[in-house]
Design goal:
Layout: H1 2-12, H2 20-36, H3 41-57, H4 66-82, E1 99-104, H5 111-124, E2 129-134, H6 139-152, E3 156-157, H7 165-178, E4 183-188, H8 196-209, E5 213-219, H9 225-237, E6 241-245, H10 254-263, E7 267-271, E8 279-281, H11 284-292, H12 295-319, H13 327-339, H14 343-349, H15 358-376, H16 380-384, H17 391-401, H18 405-425
Parallel strand pairs: 1-4, 1-5, 2-3, 2-4, 5-6, 6-7
Antiparallel strand pairs: 7-8
Helix pairs in contact: 1-2, 1-4, 2-3, 3-4, 4-11, 4-12, 5-6, 7-8, 9-10, 15-17, 17-18
The chain binds guanosine-5'-diphosphate (GDP) and magnesium ion.
Pfam families: SRP54, SRP54_N, SRP_SPB
InterPro entries: AAA+_ATPase, P-loop_NTPase, Signal_recog_part_SRP54_M_sf, Signal_recog_particl_SRP54_hlx, Signal_recog_particle_SRP54_M, SRP, SRP54, SRP54_GTPase_dom
Subcellular location: Cytoplasm
């Protein structure tokens, strides 16, 4: 698969920009790659259309080759489609009641195994779980859950194979409330294919226990069918998330994309083996690189991102007069202004600023205090080379100075505008030159 994608990048290499003319071939390769990864064809179609829009609309960044830019766009779109972050299990929506999780899915997908895996996961997070054996159709199903429960020392509620699954679920919930459990996980029966009786039973269980979470268990090897499966379960039950099992196999995990795109609900966990420990939270970025063809692609993406950052910074540099003015100067200027009295008084003296209102002046002073706090939270290096300040640095500065990320962005914008203004004035600062004579 990653070969297909490399072909796509190669086709864009040596071009100076992404255009209608050269993108279609690259997109064809991406389409083929995703289909090979078992992403549903309808999902692929929509995905490709999104990537195409993004790629054609993308600003051409100097210093970044179109293939690098393209790979980044594909990767970002994958992340966007799968949700950018891991979504944790739902908490209980009903006070005094444990969180209730209903497991749903076809037979053999790994529901019973996932039930035990989740219980162990919760146990490791200091949550007490009760398991309910509501698959009464396969004689071995109850035994299987009890064996797994014993293995991880989590109790299993069962009323045998003659009881009604809806009653089992209801009684299990009663017991979970009485026993002050944190979570109840209800294992249910599956069929080999989607079938009316199975759906009706799940609906009745849902009505009886009002689960906080309905997890669709999907076998990653399901391939194209994952889409139809998800649609059928979601339309009938309204799933709140999914577990993708058997990712330890050699599938690329394209089903992840289908499940998410069709249901709009997040994949919360992945199963990576038969053992009860083999459960991991789902991380969209890891899955995106897996679907694209493993780590080497991720390295490419990172490299592309670096070059994009670098090119951005270089662009900014060009707009800079002499590169002399930095935040150290900025804060010096501000202190000087302060020592001279109010900002307002000063602004009124500046040419072209005569009509400034008192309100605007007060706002200006608040801004100034904020700016000081933000600059105070910058490292020396950041003050000297403001172009270094990327999103994660911005976030840190915002946290450090107790302002919003937006405030930091605004400060940087103001700062850049000031740099440009200085270029025009050609002096040692916005208040340089002429101001000196006032003191
Ligand atoms: P259910 O019918 O949906 O309850 O499925 P089971 O939990 O009984 O699992 C069916 C088979 O798949 C069993 O042999 C499990 O050991 C196996 N299985 C479940 N999850 C995984 C997984 O993540 N990886 C692998 N390799 N096998 C799994
Ligand atoms: Mg089962």
């Amino acid at each position: 698969l990653s070969e297909k994608l490399e072909e796509a990048w190669r086709k864009l290499r040596g071009q100076d920009r992404i255009t209608e003319g050269n993108i279609d071939e690259a997109l064809r390769d991406v389409r083929r790659a995703l289909l090979e990864a078992d992403v549903n064809f309808q999902v692929v179609k929509e995905f490709i259309a999104d990537v195409r829009d993004d790629a054609l609309g993308a600003e051409v960044i100097k210093g970044v080759t179109p293939d690098q830019q393209f790979i980044k766009i594909v990767y970002d779109q994958l992340l966007k489609t799968m949700g950018e972050e891991n979504v944790p299990l739902a908490e209980s929506q009903v006070k005094g009641r444990p969180a209730v999780i209903l497991m749903a899915g076809l037979q053999g997908t790994g529901k019973t195994t996932a039930t035990a895996k989740l219980a162990l996961y919760l146990h490791k997070n200091n949550k007490k779980a009760l398991l309910a054996a509501a698959d009464v159709y396969r004689p071995a199903a109850i035994d299987q859950l009890q064996t797994l429960g014993a293995q991880i020392q989590v109790p299993v509620f069962s009323e045998g194979a003659a009881a009604d699954p809806v009653d089992i679920a209801r009684h299990a919930l009663d017991q979970a409330i009485a026993g002050r459990y944190d979570v109840l996980i209800v294992d249910t029966a599956g069929r080999l294919s989607i079938d009316e009786a199975m759906m009706a039973e799940l609906e009745r269980i849902k009505a009886a226990i009002a689960p906080d979470e309905i997890l669709l268990v999907v076998d990653a090897m399901t391939g194209q069918e994952a889409a139809n499966l998800t649609r059928a379960f979601h339309e009938r039950l309204g799933i709140t998330g999914a577990i993708l099992t058997k990712l330890d196999g050699d599938t690329r995990g394209g089903a992840a994309l289908s499940v998410r795109k069709i249901s709009g609900q997040p994949i919360k966990f992945v199963g990576v083996g038969e053992k009860v420990e083999a459960l991991q939270p789902f991380y969209p970025d890891r899955m995106a690189s897996r679907i694209l063809g493993m780590g080497d692609v991720l390295t490419l993406v990172e490299k592309a991102q670096e070059e994009i950052d670098f090119a951005d910074a270089a662009k900014m540099e060009q707009q800079l007069l002499s590169g002399q003015f930095d935040f150290e100067d900025f804060i010096k200027q501000m202190r000087m202004v302060k020592s001279m009295g109010s900002l307002g008084g000063l602004l009124k003296l500046m040419p072209g600023m005569g009509k400034i209102s008192d309100d605007q002046i007060r706002q200006g002073e608040v801004q100034l205090k904020k700016a000081e706090a933000m600059i105070g939270s910058m490292t020396k290096q950041e003050r000297r080379s403001p172009d270094l300040i990327n999103v994660s640095r911005k976030r840190r500065i915002a946290r450090g100075s107790g302002v919003s990320l937006e405030d930091v962005g605004k400060l940087l914008n103001d700062f850049n505008r000031m740099r440009q203004m200085m270029k025009m004035m050609g002096g040692g600062g916005p208040f340089g030159g002429g101001m000196g004579g006032m003191g």
